[in-house]
Amino acid sequence: MKIAYHYHVSVKKDEKGSLWVPGFQGRFIDSLAGYCNELYLLMHTPRTGDVLFDYRIRAENVHFISLGPRSSVPKRMLSIPRIKRIINENKHKYDCALVRGPSPLLPAVCSALEPLPTALFIVGDYRAGVDELPQPSWRKQLIKLWTLWNTAGQMRILKKSLVFVNSRQLHEKFKSCADRVIETRTTTLSDGDFFKVDDRCSEPPYHMLYTGRIDKTKGLHELIEAIKTLVDKGYDVNLDIVGWSGDRDPTEDELKKKVNLFGLEHSVFFRGFKPLGPELFFYYKKADIYIMPSYAEGFPRSIWEAMAHSVPVIATRVGSISAYVKNLEEGILIPPRDPSAIADAVEQLIENPHLRQKLIRDGRKLAGENTLQKRTGEIINNLERYCNANTR
Question: How confident is the model at residue 291 (pLDDT cuts 50, 70, 90)?
Answer without folding.
Answer: very high
